[in-house]
């Protein structure tokens, strides 16, 4: 084959740096967006925050005459809290001639403009707070080691205790056998198995109660042993936990009453004492880092109308620094002027991306409120089926854009704070030919279980029959799936003595 030149025509989807930046900002959560804005403020001198009382009567250079879209339903309104820009009263031709309106596609900011990443806080900065970035909650292991340091022990016992603590899982149970713990200890210490068991008893006296147990029976007995001797029904509770725990797990209360020779009311009080114990004592120690949710959208009812507005406290308003923008000159091609012109263009597009993010978020949130007004009025049972395609069609956007907008974005409503994805759910057909949301079905199942007879809990088949009587056609396996998603145990495990 000979090499040859061939001309071909085709279409290819490409993205400009501006579009890439807008998409990236759109999918950020509020906390991530705040960090992104802070980094932009530190790296770009052309950006500054709008302070309270600032005058923003200047013409917005980003405005193109288009008004923000308003929802079709007159009962739903929203307030525009989009980012504004304040520009100096200078001739725009002085600095805009050399700033392109669009950048070439498939490029990055760093390819065209200088960045100031070196100005970001480093680990050597005096103001850099190391603990704020690395601190986490107390772990179970550190909690036990803290108690071990306070306990009077010999050096050999302390080595054994360290091996025991290493074998305790997050639930507080000792996973390793005493023989394995003994084999992990230095043979030169000449430790015997009896010594390991004695040290284990010492560790089991640490807090929380029940720590270091090897099974559920031992865990419950360790906790019961810490109750005062005069506690009512303590002896019977110890006997139940020691000898009849399997029967209690099978909910065979008749057999329990016969074997323990207790009446129904007496057995109920013994079981209540057992249920007051913690089956996973290690989980009481909070080891995770605290997570905070900042709502992006606030929904409230005023004069029988639902108002939708952006959370003004979540994202600060930005503007272009008037003083620095006034230093940019058209004819000056020095390195300093080029740097400032590049920073000015980057600031303008960053603000425009924020404005686009706010507008898109408002469109989507308004349509969600319009579709789910029944939920806001009456609760989960009034939730309507909703998928991404419905919102995408209403706002004239692609489903992938709606998915980005609803990810890690939260709405504050009179009923609580919900992620925007919470309002989307599949549908189930009804007997009348309509549709019922899966979220509404879960709420009905939860309501039916809460009102059931504790002695004869509803089975999945019975719940499916009750739903069918309400016109909702749901299979038994679907009921089981919804029940498990709600964290509701099967009927055999929900049986109680009343």
Automatic annotation (TrEMBL):
Residues 338-496 form the RNA polymerase sigma factor 54 DNA-binding domain. It comes from Pseudomonas duriflava. Coiled coil: none annotated. It comes from the Bacteria. InterPro entries: RNA_pol_sigma_54, RNA_pol_sigma_54_core-bd, RNA_pol_sigma_54_DNA-bd, RpoN_core-bd_sf. GO terms for cellular component: DNA-directed RNA polymerase complex; protein-DNA complex. Pfam families: Sigma54_AID, Sigma54_CBD, Sigma54_DBD. Belongs to the sigma-54 factor family. Keywords: DNA-binding, DNA-directed RNA polymerase, Nucleotidyltransferase, Sigma factor, Transcription, Transcription regulation, Transferase. PROSITE patterns: SIGMA54_1, SIGMA54_2, SIGMA54_3. GO terms for biological process: DNA-templated transcription initiation. Residues 131-324 form the RNA polymerase sigma factor 54 core-binding domain. Sigma factors are initiation factors that promote the attachment of RNA polymerase to specific initiation sites and are then released. Residues 51-76 are annotated as: Disordered. NCBIfam families: PRK05932.1-2, PRK12469.1, rpoN_sigma. This is RNA polymerase sigma-54 factor.
């Amino acid at each position: 084959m000979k090499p040859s030149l061939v001309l071909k025509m085709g279409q290819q989807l490409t993205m400009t740096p501006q579009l890439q930046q807008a998409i990236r900002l759109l999918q950020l959560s509020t906390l991530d967006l705040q960090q992104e804005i802070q980094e932009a403020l530190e790296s770009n001198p052309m950006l500054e925050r709008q302070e309270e009382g600032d005058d923003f009567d200047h013409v917005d250079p980003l405005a193109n005459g288009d008004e923000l879209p308003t929802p079709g339903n007159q009962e739903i309104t929203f307030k525009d809290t989009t980012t504004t820009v304040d520009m100096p009263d200078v001739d725009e031709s002085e600095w805009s001639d050399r700033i392109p309106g669009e950048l070439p596609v498939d490029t990055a900011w760093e390819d065209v403009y200088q960045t100031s990443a070196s100005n970001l806080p480093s680990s050597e900065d005096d103001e850099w707070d190391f603990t704020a970035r690395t601190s986490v909650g107390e772990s179970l292991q550190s909690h036990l080691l803290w108690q071990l340091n306070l306990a009077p022990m010999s050096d050999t016992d302390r080595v054994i205790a360290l091996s025991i603590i290493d074998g305790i899982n997050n639930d507080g149970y000792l996973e390793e056998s005493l023989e394995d713990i003994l084999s992990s200890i230095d043979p030169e210490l000449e430790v015997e198995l009896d010594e390991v068991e004695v040290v284990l008893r010492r560790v089991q006296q640490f807090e929380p109660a029940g720590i270091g147990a090897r099974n559920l029976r031992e865990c419950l007995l360790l906790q019961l042993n810490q109750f005062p001797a005069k506690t009512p029904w303590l002896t019977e509770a110890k006997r139940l936990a020691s000898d009849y725990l399997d029967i209690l797990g099978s909910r065979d209360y008749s057999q329990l009453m016969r074997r323990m020779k207790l009446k129904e009311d007496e057995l109920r009080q013994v079981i209540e004492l057992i249920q007051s114990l913690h089956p996973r004592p290690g989980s009481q120690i909070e080891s995770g880092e605290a997570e905070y949710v900042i709502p992006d959208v606030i929904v409230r009812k005023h004069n029988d109308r639902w108002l939708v507005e952006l959370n003004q406290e979540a994202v600060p308003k930005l503007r272009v620094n008037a003083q620095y923008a006034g230093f940019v000159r058209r004819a000056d091609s020095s390195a300093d002027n080029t740097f400032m012109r590049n920073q000015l263009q980057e600031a303008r597009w960053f603000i425009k991306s924020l404005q686009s993010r706010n507008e898109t978020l408002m469109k989507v949130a308004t349509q969600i409120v319009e579709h789910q007004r029944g939920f806001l009025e009456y609760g989960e049972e009034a939730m309507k089926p909703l998928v991404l395609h419905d919102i995408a069609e209403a706002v004239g956007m692609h489903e992938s854009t709606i998915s980005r907008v609803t990810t890690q974005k939260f709405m504050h409503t009179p009923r609580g704070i919900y992620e925007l994805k919470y309002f989307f759910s599949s549908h189930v057909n009804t007997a009348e030919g309509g549709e019922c949301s899966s979220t509404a079905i879960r709420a009905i199942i939860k309501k039916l279980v809460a009102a059931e007879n504790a002695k004869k809990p509803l089975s999945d088949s019975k719940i499916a029959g009750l739903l069918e009587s309400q016109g909702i056609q749901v299979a038994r396996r679907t009921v089981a799936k919804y029940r498990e998603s709600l964290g509701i145990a099967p009927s055999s495990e929900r049986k109680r003595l009343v």
